[in-house]
Amino acid sequence: MKILIVGYGRMGREVERILAERGHEVAGRIDPRAPESDSPDLDSFPGTADAVIEFATADAVVGNAQFYTRHGVPAVVGTTGWEADREQVQKIVTDGHGSYLWGANFSVGANLFFAMVHEAGRIMNAFDSYDAMLCETHHRGKADSPSGTALEAAKRLLAVLERKQSIVHDLPGRPLQDDELHIASLRGGSVPGTHTVSFDSPFDSISVTHTARTRSGFALGSVLAAEWLPGNRGFLSVDDFFTAMQTGA
Ligand SMILES: NC(=O)c1ccc[n+]([C@@H]2O[C@H](COP(=O)([O-])OP(=O)(O)OC[C@H]3O[C@@H](n4cnc5c(N)ncnc54)[C@H](O)[C@@H]3O)[C@@H](O)[C@H]2O)c1
Question: For residue 105, how far is its CA from the centre of ligand 1 (angstroms)?
Answer without folding.
Answer: 13
